[in-house]
Amino acid sequence: MARIGVFVCHCGENIGRTVDCTKVAEALKNHPGVVESVDYKYMCSDPGQALIKQSIAEKNLTGVVVAACSPHMHEKTFRRAAFGGGLNPFLCEMANVREHCSWIHEDKEKATEKAIAIGRTIVEKVKRNVPLETIRIPVTKRALVIGGGIAGIQAALDLADGGAEVILVEKEPSIGGHMSQLSETFPTLDCSQCILTPRMVEVYQHPNIKLYSYSELESLEGYIGNFKATIRKKARSVNEELCNGCGACTQVCIQKKIPSEFDAGLGKRTAIYVPFPQAVPNIPVIDRKNCARFKAKAKGILKEACGKCAEACLKGAVDFDQEDRFVTEEVGAVVVATGYQLYTIGKDQPEGLQGYGEYGYGTIPDVIDGLQFERLASASGPTGGQILRPSDGKPPKTIVFLQCIGSRDPQKGIEYCSKICCMYVAKHTMLYKHKVHGGKAVVFYMDIRAAGKGYEEFSRRAIEEDGAIYIRGRVSRMYRDGQTIKVQGFDTLAGEPVEIDADMVVLATAMRPQPGIETLAQKLSVSYDRHGFINEAHPKLRPVETNTAGIFVAGACQSPRDIPDAVAMASATAAKVLGLFSKDQLEREPTVAKVNQDLCAGCFSCEHVCPYGAVEHKEIRDRKGVLLKIVAEVNGGVCQGCGTCQATCPSKSVELQGFTDEQIYSEINALAGCVE
Amino acid sequence: MKIGYYPGCSLHGTARELDESLRAVSAALGVHLQEVEDWSCCGATSGHATDHLLSVALAARNLALAEAQGMDQVLAPCAACFSRLASARHEARNDAEIREKLPELLGLPFTNTVAVRNLVDLLRGLAPEIKAKATKPLQGMKVACYYGCLLVRPPEVADFDDPEQPTSMEEVVKAAGGTPVTWNHRMDCCGGAFSLSRTGSVIRLGRAILDDARTAGADAIAVACPMCHSNLDFRQSAMALRGEAPMPIFFLTELVGLALGLEPKALGIRRHFVSAAPLLERQCAAGKGVS
Amino acid sequence: MQALKDLARTLLEKGEVAVILGWEEGPHGARPAFITSPEDTGRLIFDARCVQNLATYLNPRRTNIKALGKPALCVKGCDARAIAGLLRESQIKREDVVLIGVRCSGVGIEATGPAQVDAETLAPRCVGCDATEPPLADHKVGEARPLPQGKGWDARIAELEAMTAAQRWAFWQAEFEKCTRCNACRQVCPMCFCEQCVQDKTRPQWIESSPHPRGNTAWHFTRALHQAGRCSVCGECERACPAGIPLMLLNRKVAQTMERRFGYRPTADPAVPCPVGAFRQDDTQEFIR
Amino acid sequence: MQEKSKSDGAFEPKLTAFVCNWCTYTGADLAGTSRLQMATNVRIIRLPCTGRIDPLFILKAFERGADGVIVSGCHPADCHYTSGNYHARRRFAVFNDLMEFVGIDPGRLTFSWVSASEGAKWRDVVNEATSKVKALGPFTTYPNAGLALGEVAHASA
Predict the structure, then answer these.
(1) HSE (CB half, 13 Å, CA atoms) of B247?
(2) What is the DSSP-derived secondary structure letter of residue C55?
(3) What is the 3-state secondary structure (H, E, C) of D79-129?
(4) Residues of chain A contacting D32 with CB distance shorter than 8 Å
(5) pLDDT higher than threshold 50 for residue D153
């Protein structure tokens, strides 16, 4: 006979305000099988938990129901308390009367009535709970880091220094990400590459880090502690073992006019190229779309058009026939750090985003975006660090900077703030003023968001010391007028239209997740918001975890982040992963499916629907060893407990522990007010 | 194709050539225009400045009539008329209160089912036919397409082209064999109804437009709005400072008409203040079609 | 049907099989026959009265056919689909049974019907049959004659769908009310092979077992769902129902869903997965908000 | 056995919601943390995944006097278990069609995808489902199937 204890939490006023907790406790007291029903101000407090432990002992309870917040919040807490009281933790369940009741209703009477109903339901369930044993599974102490930008680099280094093996996968030929393209960084104006490149080298040389550059994640199987990652090493056309990075091949390449991705299209590169001098690894890659040899091949020309790079290579490292290769790595945890891309301002936009045709990006050569300006300002850039405008290579006397291009503009499909633009525009104005004396920097802004250590001071400095002119308002349109660009906007503080003749315009465009993030998220089965940013498990308390166990997120793929944020997140993920690796065995909730082999008819419908291939075949033989039948058996280690098998089984011969038919059946009945 | 036709006051006055050229072109393209019986003012200029409900009702009356006369779409060639009629539809669609009031106000049933088409929108739809039937394409004529303020704005009302980077007029001109030039002032204000009250402004604005078109190397400007036409055409002499070459202002329909080989006379081109004759002669002399 | 008799005889004589499952003349029309000796093969018949789907006898939980030795089974095209179903759900192995496919040009509704069917007497399930040439068979006998025109279920389904929800509810309640839960529909179905039927489960008792419209509704609803993508459309359930409940309307309705939504038609290819238990990322979901 | 909750006389329907733990349940939590007010009529039964939701649950809920049922889980491709919701979707498709065919008003059953970030959508689903069912009135025909009129009156009293 069940002896259930019910504990109703006021959660201070959170539940108490709209739910009469005492009444709930009273009502449940008379519920069949309930031997103890009390309410208390804070059940999650130590005294509250003590209350539970005490009643378990005194009333020798067979089950505990805590009517409080969401199980996602405190289920673990109270199960631990129940365990402390000598009860199997899985005999304790939570009735969610806060998120699902007190917080969403005002009518106290109705809310209380509902809370009672919720309570009854869970009581009925718990009556049918059975003691379960936590499953222990081994942990592979290797981590997969996806993305070799600053976040990925930081995470990899912290993990490696913490003693974990790291697999770092970067889709570009070199690690470094966007940070390697930046000239200086706010708010300290220290040279980006100077602080980044040492870390890149460190990654390359670290004994615990295995780097797959020019590679992408193909698929991920398994579960926390036991993932199997398949990685596609894209055909580099250069043998990484043989190449010594002398660069002879790039010297002789006949294709020299290809827009360089690293220089954001402002510089040129060859078809066989190293993205930038400090690239890690310093191994060239052949861009097959632009290589004369491959282009000819694609056209069906059999004669080998060009092989200069191969001839130039003393190591014989150039390998035109190289193909994509697949390697599988077993890892225990995954860190996603794929970073961002800039909103493309041109006319044709992906996934329904509208462009900013009125700003003439792509048609007016001297209208560029923030990253391009970084390259112009960078000593390693196409102009060697001089600010020269693309059209005629003259130093611009007036530059107009436009903030919030794409950001905070629901009409253009993005309502969020990209966080970094205010600061980097301030930085740009300084860099410009420092390099072009007497130059005029005008900024059109909506608000200046300078929250961060030294940020406000930094943006003030741009205005007060370097004399950047800030105009609050938007630009309606721009057009080329001879050598200058007419910028027509509105000064909302002065309340009058303004027209500026600019030599160059820099658009601070929105930060968006990398293309293909959805596909990646689906491979990892982590959720993402409507913009494609990866969802964190909890906005405040679990900022670097995803809602898939063992998969973590760092940097701008979670939401717009500046470098300090990205690095902080990266270190946080490392801490999380190392924490995970600190155990030899992982404890898993025993919510797994079990087959009733007497009743199983062996139709294996369950096998077809199981997402994890956890269903195995088992032969049932009699004493003499005669095969009686073949039935399904669930591998508890592999099963993740979705329960699709049970809903599929026609004879209900497989049960998901913790969510058995009997439990749900009784919940359904309880809701209808009938208790059996 | 059959389509309701709402000329509006301008096409019976200052912009008769638009009416004439439109009818001629429609006939040539097999579009049957059915004039809305008993049509009345669209509520432009003064109407919508005085009273909102009135302005909606004035326009809605014509739509209601079209509805009663079994039309499913109405062509409003004047940009202002188009804007008013389209706004009325928009209001009736989104403002329940107004929707309720309209029927009794109009004394007519109004279900807001009649689509309002713009001249440019219509011609863009017919571009393939124009291309096919263009016996005298405007080879090489450099045309600056001038949208003005109303044609594609506000987007939720006009709703047929990009409000910032429209392309529809250019498409039509291309179909007619012309070469659209890229220029900057194609969506600026021409001064509109201030032609009489603040002529100075109109001249200043118009001059900027003409100058920009010239710098872009245009032979002519194409418009799709009677107001724009009268401002740029009628006031052009006043805009000239240092004897710039006159810039013919065509209605889009006239250009299409020329391409289709219709007589300039039939298109009412002779009604222009800035004569198009020199240009057309040049074209013809250069053996570039167009008599 | 001499060919059938001869084939059966040789199979038995050669000892390839120990028993032939077929049809024979019975006191009330055609009935299933179990022939174990070559002499008796003369009793075998096949005509439009041989409506029974013998595949159901392969269910070990129903008949211990194995005890007699390896069976040869006479199958019409539609019956072969049931065999495919049993293979697909690993209830039998192909090598455990010899299939004698009988070319069929349509059968009647009852075993007592005429030996030759016309538009009037043709069973609805045969309308537009695509398996007159029996698939999957080891041997084939008989000759296919053109299938007569007939009336299927779809017209009736359309009628019902034209009604209001309340009217449909009333219609089905009236039908379900007749059900005595004799379970003939289940016992005769070759695809009902569970160790324990869900309606016999008591902990919990999802389906009330007393013959009462509420439980009956749950039962027939669930039965139809469990048949989704599995029903071989042999119509045996409806034929077996002593209360005359139009069960095949339910099965056919589900079959329509299978075809409309998942492009699936009952097949004799065991390799084709059951549409319920498979999925496409772009499956229809207009009913989901 | 089933008592229809009657506060201030007006019909207050009972709705049972079967939701998945990872998307919709979390979405409902978010609705709570965001204090989004909604109808009090919906009672949630938490399941790991829509894949676990058996048509029998829905039938039983109706049988036991639920006036409406909500079934909700992760959007396609968002399933925590990668494909549970895809299988569920097919199962529900068949259920949906058959249910209409046997004459249960589709308005009584709401299927929806509500992600962990769609607290507001959950509120809308709850409110819309509730008002739909309110309009349809108490669902007695199923629970009382086969009862003589007298009994119906008695049961719904």
Answers:
(1) 33
(2) G
(3) CCCCCHHHHHHHHHHHHHHHHHHHCCCHHHEEEEECCCCCHHHHHHHHHHH
(4) 70, 98-100, 103-104
(5) no
Which range marks the domain in which residue A28 is found?
4-133
ipTM over 0.85: no
| Contact state of A480 with B184 under an 8 Å Cβ cutoff | yes
Q: Is there a contact between C92 and C86 (Cβ–Cβ < 8 Å)?
A: yes
Whether residue B108 sits in one domain with residue B168: no
Confidence of residue D147 (pLDDT cuts 50, 70, 90): low
Range of the domain at B222: 135-285
Integer Cα distance of A346 and A503 in angstroms? 20
CA of residue C268 relative to chain centroid, distance: 12
Task: Give residue D39's pLDDT band: very low, low, confident or very high (50, 70, 90).
Answer: very high
Q: Which amino acid is at A286?
A: I
Q: Are residues A67 and A121 in the same domain?
A: yes
**Distance from the A73 Cα atom to the nearest Cα atom in chain C, whole angstroms:** 28
What residue of C is the nearest CA neighbor of A662?
Answer: C204
Contact A22, A40 (CB under 8 A): no
Strands, sheet with B32-35, edge to edge from the N-terminal-most edge strand: B32-35, B2-5, B73-76, B115-118
Distance from CA of A357 to the nearest CA of B (A): 6
Check residue A554 and report its DSSP letter: -
Interface of C with D in 232-251 (CB under 8 A): 250
Confidence of residue A343 (pLDDT cuts 50, 70, 90): confident
Residues B281 and B152 in one domain: yes
Does some domain include residue A306? Answer: yes
Q: Which residues of A touch B164 (CB under 8 A)?
A: 356-358, 477
CATH number at residue D100: 3.40.50
Q: How far is D142 from chain C (nearest CA, A)?
A: 7
> Could D66 and A656 be called an inter-chain contact, meaning their C-beta atoms sit closer than 8 Å?
no
* Nearest residue in C to A666, CA atom: C204
pLDDT tens column, A595-621? 999 999 999 999 999 987 889 999 999
**How would you classify the pairing of strands A190-191 and A209-212?**
unpaired
Whether A428 and A502 map to the same domain: the answer is: yes
Window 99-118 of A, Cβ < 8 Å to D: 99-100, 103-107, 109-111, 113-114, 117-118
Handedness of CA A647, A653, A657, A660 (dihedral sign): positive
Query: What residue of B is the nearest CA neighbor of A485?
Result: B184
Contact D81 A591 (CB under 8 A): no
Residue of A97, A644, A653, A664 for testing the chain D interface, max D β-carbons within 10 Å: A644
Q: Mean pLDDT for chain A?
A: 93
H or E stretch including B102? helix B96-106
A408 half-sphere exposure, CB direction, 13 A CA radius: 17
Separation in Å, CA C93 to CA A651, C59, C84, C86: 22, 12, 10, 9
Residue in A358, A481, A486 closest to B165 by CB: A358
Mean pLDDT, chain C, whole residue set:
93
Mean local confidence (pLDDT), B74-89: 95
Distance between CA atoms of B119 and B261, rounded to whole angstroms? 20
CA angle C113, C119, C125 (to 5 degrees): 75
Q: What is the pLDDT of residue A353?
A: 61
Kindly give the pairing relationship between strand A325-331 and strand A226-233.
Answer: antiparallel
Query: Residue A470 pLDDT more than 50?
Result: yes
